[in-house]
Every structure is written in structure tokens, then in C-alpha cells.
Amino acid sequence: MLKTPLPRSFYLRPTLLVAPDLLGRCLVRRYRNALLAGTIVEVEAYLGRRDPASHSYRGKTERNSVMFGTGGHLYVYFTYGMHFCCNVVTEEEGNGCAVLIRALEPLEGLPVMRKLRGAPAAGDDRLLTNGPAKLCQAFGIGRADNGADLAGDRIYLTRGTPVAGRTIGTSPRIGISEGKEFPFRFYIPGNRFVSRP
DNA sequence: TCTATGATCGTA
DNA sequence: ACGATCATAGAG
User: Fold this and answer.
1) Where does A47-135 show beta strands of DSSP type E?
2) pTM score, two decimals?
3) Which nucleotides of B are covered by protein (CB under 7 A)?
4) A:74-133 Cβ neighbours of strand B under 7 Å
5) A197 domain-assigned
6) Does A33 reside within a domain?
7) Which of A62, A71, A85, A140 pairs as cysteine with A11 (C-beta 3.0–4.6 A)?
């Protein structure tokens, strides 16, 4: 596995090209002294000001300001009073586009992930990272990581094993009330760590 | 100030 | 199906 971070140019493309291209890539996270890693198996695209399901739909606020920055940064938000979720910002400054990472297949650092997830994931490693809030907890991602540069050395993506376009599954996005008609969820069919089949 | 609600998860 | 639990945004 190549350990060098993907270049900035990877993220500066149209979001609907980047999102499926993230499948099979590897998320690497340095957490204290541990190295955590996982393969991305499920994502959702959010298309900025023209997308009613996007946090950036109503323009820039303090909460979503990272979304309006340059691609290649991490947008972390807090929701439902208890969960963090993380997105990869795409395209150029001002567009407000991002891709939500919804599920990972753990590769390295499983013992640390089990400790961070605690009892809810006991006895089944699928429960470590098969959801956007679960994977953030397993990787120790929180408020402090909002705005992190993916070209840095704390959190970044590596090339991994890209997935051929024709084998990618699509569906409507999960948990939204508007924009349900668009198939902007992308996943690896049959992978055990996808949040919903 | 005040209030409704959410890109969710775990338990029943 | 439902409760937990609170930051955020928009209204007043």
C-alpha cells in the first residue's frame, strides 16, 4: 500500500467525480501514538448552494465555513446532540461542496478502534465503522479536526485500491428530507461494512 | 432570547 | 418504532 497522501488536485475536481473515486481509498489517521487506517466503502456527495440537502445550501455560516474553503480539507460537524460526522471538502474555494464519509473497512489499529467505540461495538467489528458517526468515534475524529488539511500528517487519504466505476453501487442519500430524488450515495456492493445494503 | 430540528445510533 | 441529547440557525 502506498502511504503518500493524495495530491490536492484530487479534490479540486467536480464533486460527482470525486465521490465515487473515493471508494477503495485509504483513510489514515494518527491518533496519539497509534496509526489508524481504513478503506472507504461508502460516501455521499453534497453539492453546495444548489443542493437543498447540503449544509451549505443557505450560504456560509460559522458552522459550515470549512465547506466553503479549498478542497482537500476535512469538514467535521456535530449533529443530533451527540454525534460527529466528517466530510472531505471538494472543488475550489467558495463552492461549498463536500463528500460525507459514511463507512470504512478497518485496516489497521483495530484494538484502538475497539477501545474508542466501547461496548456498542463489542463482539462485531462491523459495528466499529459502518456509519458516519461510528467511524468518527472509532478514529477519534471530533471538533478539533474540523478544517484539518488532508495534505498534513494527522489525517490524510492514500491511493488505496481504486474501484472500477461500473462496479460501484448508487442510491439516494440517507437521512435527508430534501433532494431525495438524486442518487448521490456511492458504495461498494457486498462489502460487509456498508451501513445499509 | 427562544425554539425546532437534524447528513444518527442504540435499544426495545 | 422511539428516546437520547444539544449545537445551530432562523425567527421574534
Assistant:
1) 74-79, 83-90, 97-108
2) 0.95
3) 6-11
4) 75, 77, 79-83, 85, 87, 98, 100, 117, 119-121, 127, 131-133
5) no
6) yes
7) A71
Burial bucket for residue A192 (CB in 10 Å: 0-12, 13-18, 19+) = exposed
Q: Is residue A194 part of a domain?
A: no
For A123-158, the pLDDT digits (tens) are 899 999 999 999 999 999 999 999 999 999 999 999
Nucleotide nearest to A56 in CA–C1' terms: B7
For chain A, what is the radius of gyration of the CA atoms?
15
Count structural domains, chain A. 1
Give the CATH number for residue A52: 3.10.300.10
Specify which residue's alpha carbon is closest to the C1' of nucleotide C9: A61
Confidence of residue A3 (pLDDT cuts 50, 70, 90): confident
A58: Cβ under 7 Å from strand C? yes
Domain assignment present for A2: no
DSSP string, A46-59: E-GGG-TTSTTTT-
Residue A65, domain extent: 8-187
* Phi, psi for residue A144 in degrees, rounded to 5: -65, -20
